[in-house]
Amino acid sequence: MQYNHIVIRFGELSLKGKNRRHFESQLRETVRKKLAPFKQAVVVKSYDRILVEINGEDHMLMIQKLQEVFGIHAISLAIHTENDLSAILEGALAAFTEARGTAKTFKVAAKRSNKSFPVGTMELNREVGGHILRATEDITVDVHKPDVEVKVEVKDNGTFISCSTFPGAGGLPIGVGGKAILMLSGGIDSPVAGYLTMKRGVRLEAVHFHSPPFTSERARQKAEDLMQELTRFGGKLKLHIVSFTKIQQIIKEKIPASYSMTIMRRMMLRITERIAEERNAMAIANGENLGQVASQTMYSMNTINEVTNLPIIRPVVTMDKLEIIDISQKIGTYDISIRPYEDCCTIFVPAAPKTKPRRDKAQLFEQKIENMEELIEEAVATIETVLFEEATNKDDEFTNLF
Ligand code: ATP
Ligand code: MG
């Protein structure tokens, strides 16, 4: 007997009723898309979990792909048998032998939700344990801290036996949490912010501001490559590229250098808000962090935030840089983010931006931009939208998340 099923368990099971049905169907849909390259595999619904029939596909590769899906708490490899004691014993031994490695101790944990099965839980533990002990050398039972736990679940649709469980990505299935627009620079923080926002079930679209010819094609390429990487978690993703050159030049001309960064960020936020309205998004996500640089002080956040009433999701706001870097390495965006090309902010930023910009001053300076509304409209009207989809080749390289 071989592993023939993957069992997917959900996280955050407190959800009830209609929400829970919605949650589960979103997750099943995502799992189906994720496993589409595995042509023989079949995703089936089961009462409180999702089952995947492996049908000869590479199960370890499938598990690694499933570890990119939010809303999954744990993933197990399982042998599915009929509700028949001798089949269960054979299956348990096969699963144990496959998973054993160098293990010296084990325990059996049986559960029986199908009460018509004649063997009780305690007896099943004993039967299965005894069978494994008789057939295996150099192994003992340890009920407290076993190296391997053999789970045996007798259900209405058969018995599932598993010894290998892998952690899922956690979070909530994408789609249950509404939509947000992610402000994606080419830096380290914003892709991590995007990942963490999606982790809470939020569907993303992203906006990137670029300023040709002051910023190169390569800077834009960076944003596009980051989006491609994020599709592993988000599926299809749209990136709206805003041509920001004209606005930046006007800011440079009319705004005192110490406030140019603040005004630039306020303009970005206004445009992002407009995009959010058009795209039916209810929030904005960004990679802002409370730190030492001028654009990242609480004063600065306060003054920039003034121009929108939309909630701003800042998943990395309180993290240390090293924590953010750690996540970016795990999700595969770090190497792209550290490519050296300048983004539009770095180029126009003055040597000494104000670290404590004020709302009243920002408003005053902005009055010098007479045609602000037109500029925003033009920027929104000339947006270029690029669609990214996850590569469907199952042999693609991927980073191991855990
Ligand atoms: P990141 O690493 O994400 O670039 P950062 O530490 O460099 O962040 P800032 O440059 O102050 O911080 O940017 C703060 C946030 O503003 C970014 O995380 C991003 O969400 C947004 N942002 C900055 N530049 C751009 C841009 N060119 N296009 C879209 N969003 C941007
Ligand atoms: Mg940056």
Automatic annotation (TrEMBL):
UniProt-annotated location(s): Cytoplasm
PANTHER family for the chain: TRNA SULFURTRANSFERASE
Catalytic activity, as annotated: [ThiS sulfur-carrier protein]-C-terminal Gly-Gly-AMP + S-sulfanyl-L-cysteinyl-[cysteine desulfurase] + AH2 = [ThiS sulfur-carrier protein]-C-terminal-Gly-aminoethanethioate + L-cysteinyl-[cysteine desulfurase] + A + AMP + 2 H(+); [ThiI sulfur-carrier protein]-S-sulfanyl-L-cysteine + a uridine in tRNA + 2 reduced [2Fe-2S]-[ferredoxin] + ATP + H(+) = [ThiI sulfur-carrier protein]-L-cysteine + a 4-thiouridine in tRNA + 2 oxidized [2Fe-2S]-[ferredoxin] + AMP + diphosphate
Annotated residues for binding of ATP: 183-184, 208-209, 265, 287, 296
Annotated ranges, domain THUMP: 60-165
Pathway involvement of the protein, from the record: Cofactor biosynthesis; thiamine diphosphate biosynthesis
Highest taxon of source: Bacteria
Stored InterPro entries: Rossmann-like_a/b/a_fold, ThiI_AANH, ThiI_fer, ThiI_N, THUMP_dom, THUMP_ThiI, tRNA_STrfase, tRNA_sulfurtransferase_ThiI
Molecular function via GO: ATP binding; CCA tRNA nucleotidyltransferase activity; tRNA binding; tRNA-uracil-4 sulfurtransferase activity
EC number(s) per entry: 2.8.1.4
GO BP, sorted A to Z: thiamine biosynthetic process; thiamine diphosphate biosynthetic process; thiazole biosynthetic process; tRNA 4-thiouridine biosynthesis
Protein name as catalogued: Probable tRNA sulfurtransferase
Taxonomic source organism: Fictibacillus macauensis ZFHKF-1
EC class: transferase
Record keywords, A-Z: ATP-binding, Cytoplasm, Nucleotide-binding, RNA-binding, Thiamine biosynthesis, Transferase, tRNA-binding
Keyword Ribonucleoprotein: no
Family (UniProt): Belongs to the ThiI family.
UniProt main location, coarse: cytoplasm
Record's function text: Catalyzes the ATP-dependent transfer of a sulfur to tRNA to produce 4-thiouridine in position 8 of tRNAs, which functions as a near-UV photosensor. Also catalyzes the transfer of sulfur to the sulfur carrier protein ThiS, forming ThiS-thiocarboxylate. This is a step in the synthesis of thiazole, in the thiamine biosynthesis pathway. The sulfur is donated as persulfide by IscS.
